[in-house]
TrEMBL record:
Residues 85-109 are annotated as: Disordered. This is Tetratricopeptide repeat protein. InterPro entries: TPR-like_helical_dom_sf. It comes from Amycolatopsis rubida.
């Protein structure tokens, strides 16, 4: 189901895409699939950026970087850090708590 929601988000209008990605994130977290959680977070940043919410886009991509680094996905880290569409510089590796099922996350604020 999470895969379907993430796929729907790619063809949906930006606000619908945000909701589909959020729903997919919940399901990936519940199932413990951090690999696809990271991919979905990366996808979620795009509609936030397209709707003009650069703060949420940057926060989501920061979480993406944290997960990619923890997973050893260094090609993806490089792509996120160097893509011009990522709102310029400022994304970096950091340590800190991940958003959990009940923890506040930037896309819910």
């Amino acid at each position: 189901m999470a895969d379907v929601l993430d796929s729907l988000a790619h063809i949906a209008h930006h606000t619908d895409a945000i909701e589909h990605h959020r729903e997919a994130l919940v399901l990936y977290r519940e199932s413990g699939n951090t690999y696809l959680e990271a991919d979905t977070l990366e996808h979620l940043g795009h509609p936030h950026r397209e709707t003009g919410d650069s703060g949420k886009a940057r926060a989501v991509w920061q979480l993406t970087l944290d997960l990619f680094r923890a997973q050893g996905r260094f090609a993806e880290v490089n792509a996120v850090e160097t893509a011009p569409a990522r709102l310029g510089s400022g994304l970096r590796s950091r340590s800190g708590p991940r958003c959990g099922k009940l923890d506040p996350c930037p896309w819910n604020q």
